[in-house]
Amino acid sequence: MSYIGKKIKEVMVPKGRLVYTTPDTTVKEAVKQMVKKNVGSILIVENDKLVGIFTERDLMKMVAEDKPVYTAIGDVMTRDPVSLKPDDPLSKAALIMSERGFRHIPIVDDEGKLVGIVSSRDISRVFYEAVEASFSE
Asked: CA 31, 37, 41 angle in degrees (round to 5)?
């Protein structure tokens, strides 16, 4: 299947492998998780529902504003982030990332429960594989 025809669910990182926490976690603890897992964002959930995302950009803004690392992540996260559904086309995620400058888009089900995440790295990998396959044809 080509890059264009793929669905997000085919390439997203599923919930079982996600890095996520609750709004009351300190920024310091959240960043430790991000470093340990080598990721650029952490998802914030309450009752399995996505309520926010905290990214490297949020951390830079926080540092620039001299906020302490013991601040609750819920106070500095990006609330109600743009999200997509597993059956949305991967091309939709690529377009949103390109237009909005995002590197991560959370994936939720119809009830708003977190089911995965897709990153610009995931999209790049799929695109690279499609290009490689076209050369071998």
From this structure: 50
